[in-house]
Amino acid sequence: MDHLDRILLSGIYNVRKGKTQLHKWAERLVVLCGTCLIVSSVKDCQTGKMHILPLVGGKVEEVKRRQYSLAFSSAGAQAQTYHVSFETLAEYQRWQRQASKVVSQRISTVDLSCYSLEEVPEHLFYSQDITYLNLRHNFMQLERPGGLDTLYKFSQLKGLNLSHNKLGFFPVLLCEISTLTELNLSCNGFHDLPSQIGNLLNLQTLCLDGNFLTTLPEELGNLQQLSSLGISFNNFSQVPEIYEKLTMLDKMVMAGNQLEVLNLGVLNRMSHIKYVDLRMNHLKTMVIENLEGNKYITHMDLRDNQLTDLDLSSLCSLEQLHCERNQLRELTLSGFSLRTLYANSNKLTAVNVYPVPSLLSSLELSRNLLECVPDWACEAKKIEILDMSYNLLTEVPMRILSSLSLRKLMVGHNRVQNLPVLVEHIPLEVLDVQHNSLTRLPDTLFSKALNLRYLNASANSLESLPSACAGEESLSALQLLYLTNNLLTDQCVPILVGHPHLRILHLANNQLQTFPASKLNKLEELEELNLSGNKLKTIPTTIANCKRLHTLVAHSNNISIFPEILQLPQIQFVDLSCNDLTEILIPEALPATLQDLDLTGNTNLVLEHKTLDTFSHITTLKIDQKPLPTTDSTITSTFWSHGLAEMAGQRNKLCVSALAVDNFAEGVGAVYGMFDGDRNEELPRLLQCTMADVLLEEVQQSTNDTVFMANTFLVSHRKLGMAGQKLGSSALLCYIRPDTADPTSSFSLTVANVGTCQAVLCRSGKPVPLSKVFSLEQDSEEAQRVKDQKAIITEDNKVNGVTCCTRMLGCTYLYPWILPKPHISSTPLTIQDELLILGNKALWEHLSYTEAVNAVRHVQDPLAAAKKLCTLAQSYGCQDNVGAMVVYLNIGEEGCTCEMNGLTLPGPGGFASTTIIKDPPKPTTPSSSSGIASEFSSEMSTSEVSSEVGSTASDEHNTVGLDAGLLPRPERRCSLHPTPTSGVFQRQPSCATFSSNQSDNGLDSDDDQPVEGVITNGSKVEVEVDIHCCRGRDLENSPTLRENSPTPCPEEHARGVFLGIRRQNSVNSGILLPVSKDKMELQKSPSTSCLYGKKLSNGSIVPLEDSLNLIEVATEAPKKKTGYFAAPTQLEPEDQFVVPRDLEEEVKEQMKHHQESRPEPEPSEEDRTELPEEFDTAL
């Protein structure tokens, strides 16, 4: 009984079988499981001997002759009855209630999808009422007790879904389930169908999508009741002849196959086919066998093919045609029955329809090469929607604008210079004329188009607006008005009063200097107001009368007085960034609806603690963070600075997150990222918090940009865990680092992305795209890959109806169709590189690369630039989440900070060529996981190691060692002029950490003056000294060691030493473990954890915090379970480190080998004086 996981009640009771008293009462084990009553002997219950009584449709009655007894009866002509006697009233009532529920229910549908099942649970076979069984996304097997070969036991089964089970071949025994009317076998890897499928005479729906079928058996023609046959995303190269026999079919669904020729003659022989779906094939040509017309086909879908010319004039009954994303130059159709035509994203120069389509209601011809509106479209009497955006139009015909049926006209992104003057009233409701060359709108536009609700005239050259209808009471119905990026002045504001029903008003990036208070007072229905990018000094106080206002965007102005918006009852979003605010007068209580307040970029604004406490309940509060005094950001601030803007739009949550680290890897680089979760906000937040850490780890493992970027994305994909099972996110990561491969460049930019987030570099004023869009519509190679792997692409161009992206982080259940493999590109940065723009899908859908670059390249503040991009996107029609980041670049000698401390830069001869080791061999030294300590001389004490370290410093820097109590003042090197390195070795920091009351470094008193390079933290003092390798010539000419210092290990000359000296108040425990890193391509000292901008719960970016963790660096030291290590306690300087006996011989051999291979001659006094001071940028 253990396998029955649906046991409701069970117990040992007296049972009698049958309605008569011929049988005696006997003690039995009674179980109410699922929909059945199971009776078995107590002794044989474990052997599986039992009587099963189906209860669905049966009866549960009280036995009056015996106390606390129930009679269980099954349904049907041969019904059986069992009497069960219970001991207590409570048991009797509990069994009666539960059994009554089972008897009354009817289980007809069972959904077991996505349960990783290999067979059907046994208890399901006890129910004979199952009519629909869903086993989608499992691992069903054939020859098992509950396998597919046993499904014939469901005698009433009508619907069966076995899609996505990777069966490999068609289960023949399914053809014995004669009751089936619906069968789904999609995505199972079938190459052929058995002839027995003709036995399913009752079958009405058969879905075979996502397999490898090339032909269909003739026996399939026996299924005369088949009304739906799906064979999309298979390998058919021609239309199967079986369609001619299946007369009940009215749709031919063959999307995603391998058809290359559209043969209209074959379709003419199928008079029962009305709907033809040939999306995503390889159609290139069309063949017409005869001149006979087709009077049957009404709908045809030819999207995403390779057609160049299309003539469907023979389809005289065609009502709807989809032919988007082909290579069409000319299109010819019949207009007898045409109602809708979608031909976007082609290369059309002519569209011919004859006769004039009198029934045409919707015409979409955007993103083509049309120079004028077709004449037949102007004569269509019932046309309601016309989309001619992104063409080459120079004028809008009067017949179109004055049409008595047209309600929506889209002619944006053309070359229109003026619109015709309206004479009569028109029913137009939506007019989009953005991105044209308009200098004025028709004077009678608002007086004749009284139904106009939406007008977008952004990105033109408008200097004035037409007046509304005359009269005391305005009849204007205008609700949404977008006039961003024009030349409007204060004179246009009084005209707005004529539109009292305005809900959304965008006047950003114009030339407004004032907004009259009396005019704003009359816009009482205003809900969203955008005045950013103007020259306003104040927002009128009458804004308090706009009781419905929920969004105010007024960034990038000269506003010095905080507007009176905190009195508005519905205010939610306020953006006053990049202004001149100095103080805020707040009421006693803020509105509960306020969710987002952005005050960044107001350099003179000082918020008191009381004000901050008042703002504490706001979900997102963005204010400028004061830089920490210990933050050493001056080194990199001259090379790059960033600004970030994120706007939720019409949605109630923000699913876009960004990563910004100006001072990455100890100030020698920067990292910027953008993450878009589309409909989820969890994954972007997770990636924002973890991806910088992952990148830092991977950079330490390899200098190959392709390797560490690919690994960063794969590791981040894995770290998403359960959250990444069904959720996905686009990701974009940009890493700026010193360029060691190109001597002519100081920095290189590596960009990696998956999904739809993109990065664009502005070089000499021109956009340079650095990323790739992984979507089905924009990447034909990715679309073909997904097709080859038999994914189901729905009509809205989404993989399995989930996402349009083909590469994402997350969505692991859609593998292998959705991959986390990124596109990676690297480019050296030069002085011509001005800025870098990162944006999500919504930004680039509404702004071209050129427009985005031209919009911000002359803006001084990167924050204002990012804000401007988001504002433009919203004004151009974006209603989704939009995010933009602008990184200003200043790559050039003028940005050098090497002489900030008065030090002289070395000459050209001071820099040696660097050899980059792309894939270095694995080190022979044991790793930290091996449990073997670092190699030390067993006769070396703590004080000796201290003096040795000091002498090593003096060797490389020609300065007095730490033992003398003096620390050299570190020379700050910018990333343009890194510290000279060896021709073979790069800097490889090691770590040594020890604690002592009296050490030989001169830092034995808390009263000492602070020394540069020393970090104090409460009772702890940490000193970081980075000693890197010099060139081979410098090593040979290094000064002699001090007499009281033992000869350092040759390995330490090659690796360098990184010191951390920590004094604690606790008991002294000397720790001294210098350790070398495994990889020779390390660019960053691992003593500092990853520094990245963390986003608070309110969405603000906080400054970085320095990590003082010097312990985790020791990768070769044995670690405890806690992740830290410590050497044995050493209370006296005479304590020695002991090398394990099993390693003594190995240590001696390695030391001997290095001493022989690296002899050190006595340097001369002249060589010592010529060696310049060299320090690393990290100091």
UniProtKB/TrEMBL annotation:
<feature type="compositionally biased region" description="Basic and acidic residues">
    <location>
        <begin position="1148"/>
        <end position="1161"/>
    </location>
</feature>
<feature type="compositionally biased region" description="Polar residues">
    <location>
        <begin position="978"/>
        <end position="1002"/>
    </location>
</feature>
<dbReference type="Pfam" id="PF13855">
    <property type="entry name" value="LRR_8"/>
</dbReference>
<feature type="compositionally biased region" description="Low complexity">
    <location>
        <begin position="925"/>
        <end position="953"/>
    </location>
</feature>
<dbReference type="InterPro" id="IPR050216">
    <property type="entry name" value="LRR_domain-containing"/>
</dbReference>
<feature type="compositionally biased region" description="Acidic residues">
    <location>
        <begin position="1162"/>
        <end position="1179"/>
    </location>
</feature>
<dbReference type="Pfam" id="PF00560">
    <property type="entry name" value="LRR_1"/>
</dbReference>
<dbReference type="InterPro" id="IPR001932">
    <property type="entry name" value="PPM-type_phosphatase-like_dom"/>
</dbReference>
<dbReference type="InterPro" id="IPR003591">
    <property type="entry name" value="Leu-rich_rpt_typical-subtyp"/>
</dbReference>
<keyword id="KW-0433">Leucine-rich repeat</keyword>
<keyword id="KW-0677">Repeat</keyword>
<protein>
    <submittedName>
        <fullName>PH domain leucine-rich repeat-containing protein phosphatase 2 isoform X2</fullName>
    </submittedName>
</protein>
<dbReference type="Pfam" id="PF13516">
    <property type="entry name" value="LRR_6"/>
</dbReference>
<dbReference type="Pfam" id="PF00481">
    <property type="entry name" value="PP2C"/>
</dbReference>
<feature type="region of interest" description="Disordered">
    <location>
        <begin position="1124"/>
        <end position="1179"/>
    </location>
</feature>
<dbReference type="InterPro" id="IPR001611">
    <property type="entry name" value="Leu-rich_rpt"/>
</dbReference>
<dbReference type="InterPro" id="IPR036457">
    <property type="entry name" value="PPM-type-like_dom_sf"/>
</dbReference>
<dbReference type="InterPro" id="IPR032675">
    <property type="entry name" value="LRR_dom_sf"/>
</dbReference>
<feature type="domain" description="PPM-type phosphatase">
    <location>
        <begin position="641"/>
        <end position="889"/>
    </location>
</feature>
<feature type="region of interest" description="Disordered">
    <location>
        <begin position="916"/>
        <end position="1009"/>
    </location>
</feature>
